[in-house]
Amino acid sequence: MCGIVGYAGGKSAAGELFEGLKKLEYRGYDSAGISTLGGGSIFTIKKSGRVEGLAPRMGELEGCVGIGHTRWATHGEANDVNAHPHIYGSFSIVHNGIIENYAELKAELSAEGHVFFSHTDSEVIAHLLDYYYKGNFAEALSLACSRLKGCWAIAALCKQFQGFTVTRHGSPAILGEGEDGFFVASDMYALMGRARSYCILADGDIALVTPRGISIYDGQLQPVARNFSPLEWEEEEVGTGGCPHYMLKEIRQNARTVRATCRAFASSGCGGQCSRLKEADKIVLVGCGTAYNAALAAVRLLGGAYECPVSAHIASEARYDPPRVTQKSVCIAVSQSGETADTIMAAKILKDGGAYLIAVTNVGYSAITRFADKVVPVCAGAEVCVAATKSYIGQLACFHMLAAPCAPRVRCGALMKIADDIERVVSDGVYAANIASLCVKSRAVFFLGRGADVDVAVEGSLKLKEVSYIFSDGYPAGELKHGTLALIDESVLSVVLICDESLCEKSKTAVEQILSRKGKVAVITTLPHIYAELSARVSAAWLLPCAPSHLAHFLSATALQLIAYHAAVMAGRDPDKPRNLAKSVTVE
Ligand code: G6P
Q: NCBIfam families under this entry (predicted)?
């Protein structure tokens, strides 16, 4: 949610910052801006729209020190004035997070004669720096932050200081050391290929970053030593790998995500968590968006493996109405980024209530990993497309492993086999494109299933609406006759998932009900006899590799991800950066 970059070194800052912002654009992309410092002056360009929109004015930026920002608007519409950086007096700042008490601070500073230019909460930070600055930049930042309520990562320039300062409270900030300079970024992805080592700034720390190095101070402004770790990354993590979009590249990585996640589960001693689950009086899962949908699948998997009750909760609800937990309960927080504010708050509340906290996350250095009792890693690699794909598949793999207390090796073997089948689904792109073309011609698309297929239907619907903006809904096929049937006509497509032999006759009934109302139907199945029976009667049918019903979701979810991707491209959307959305929602 919003991206921050900063650079101080031997190169021109403008180019470094522009490249960093392009990598961070998936974090928010309704406006962007850069400030640089050269010869005691601050140069700033900022504009609504994508980072690319800054390119024509890059020549205006001088100096080897600077900060940049790409925004996902929370306070104030996405226009040029509200874009970061915000300038006041000798200061330029970029901010991620939310300043909850900005209105009262603004009123206080206005009474002192400060004039505000934007409608953002962030601008108040530049004014506070100006107010408190008495010649010591770190001290002014510390005093300014002591007045803030909410969450923040801040990078700031001051005309009188040849470098920039960074601090954080609840929002991520990562420092990097490279060959040609020093960096800050709100996301490791922006540092890959540029920094050799990194350090996650702690809440309350203040870093002074200059072309000569980085000094870190604690909340009392005393110097502190913080460890830098080598930044290891794989070349293929950066860029679209020859695909037209990250979304397609990332769906193609589903199979390797399953394999890597299974291996990591074994090597990081996660198997021990199964005994913890066995002894639990209840297991509660929390997450948002796709992560919540993965939690729905976990309810079936863990519910089948353990005797205690298992439930999934939308984190933004659970934090205000938390399920009751005891010292014997286990909370599993599911989050690709590990930074989603609602998930973090819900997990903290449940942990405070006594529950043991397991984080299932793709980002090993994220906020949630710092207070979880155990991290179960999803090994999807960097996921850049805003819509989650391979991380969902990796989360499913984690839950399968957590649901196999007795025979982890057997489960791991089954997952390795399903990974091969996922590759087969990915290579069947023509079926996905065919169903996608039906989606883009439809007024609405419904995704239906029974049993475990329902969870995939819900996620498939979310994927389609996120990236193509086509109205869609996912729900149990048995509910069709209790309402949605009223919406079915020839302009509506229903995608029916039939991957469970024991429920297939019931799912066929839903197909008949839709066909008899002249609705269009696409069937996706792992059952050859269903394909044989229905393929000639429906608008499209896709036979996936045969798979046991509890594993079929890896295949049907991959199929629905591909359909959503093709539908977005056919509808002329950018699947990687859907309008109004952001990859990681670090505000509440
Ligand atoms: C945002 C993204 C979704 C994601 C959700 C939860 O809304 O657009 O794709 O599923 O956040 O993110 P998390 O990082 O916690 O899994």
A: glmS, PRK00331.1
Spatial contact of 545 and 555, defined as CB atoms under 8 Å apart: yes
Q: Assign residue 102 a region (left: φ > 0; alpha: ψ between -120 and 50; beta: otherwise).
A: alpha
Q: Give the class (CATH, top level) of 428-575.
A: alpha beta
- 524 within 8 A of 542, measured Cβ to Cβ: yes
Domain 240-423 has CATH 3.40.50.970: no
Domain positions in the chain are 3-233, 240-423, 428-575
What's the 135 CA to ligand 1 centre distance in angstroms? Answer: 42
3-state secondary structure of 71: strand
The three-state secondary structure class of 521 is strand
CATH 2.40.50.100 fits 3-233, yes or no: no
Tens place of pLDDT per residue across the chain (588 aa):
689 999 999 999 999 999 999 988 877 778 899 999 999 999 999 999 889 999 999 999 999 999 999 988 777 787 898 999 999 999 999 999 889 999 999 999 999 999 999 999 999 999 999 999 999 999 999 999 999 999 899 999 999 999 999 999 988 899 999 999 999 999 888 999 899 999 999 999 999 999 999 999 998 999 999 999 999 877 777 889 899 999 999 999 999 999 999 999 988 888 889 889 999 999 999 999 999 999 999 999 999 999 999 999 999 999 999 999 999 999 999 999 999 989 999 999 999 999 999 999 999 888 899 899 999 999 999 999 999 999 999 999 999 999 998 778 888 999 999 999 999 999 988 999 999 999 999 999 999 999 999 999 999 999 999 999 999 999 999 999 898 889 999 999 999 999 999 999 999 999 999 999 999 999 999 999 999 999 999 999 999 999 999 999 999 999 999 999 999 999 999 999 999 888 877 766
Please give the Cα distance from 514 to 506 (Å, whole number).
Answer: 13
SS3 13: helix
Atom of ligand 1 nearest to the CA of 340: 15
| Residue to probe by mutation, ligand 1, list 319, 584, 586, most atoms within 8 Å of CB | 584
**2 among known catalytic residues:** yes
User: Between 123-132 and 102-111, two packed helices, what is the crossing angle to 10 degrees?
Assistant: 50
Omega cis (within 30) before 85: yes
CA distance 340 to 334: 10
Cβ proximity of 21 and 34 under 8 Å:
yes
Q: Which of 2, 151, 199, 379 is catalytic?
A: 2
Give the three-state DSSP class for 204. coil
Q: Do the domains spanning 240-423 and 428-575 agree at the CATH topology level?
A: yes
Q: Is 583 a catalytic residue?
A: yes
Global confidence as pTM? 0.89
Contact 456, 556 (CB under 8 A): yes
Please tell me what DSSP assigns to residue 232.
Answer: -
CA of 358 from ligand 1 middle (Å) equals 18
Pick the residue whose CA is nearest to atom 8 on ligand 1.
Answer: 583
Confirm if 575 and 569 have CB atoms less than 8 A apart. Answer: yes
- Residue 332: CB partners within 8 Å, gap ≥ 6? 283, 284, 285, 286, 295, 298, 357, 358, 359, 360, 402
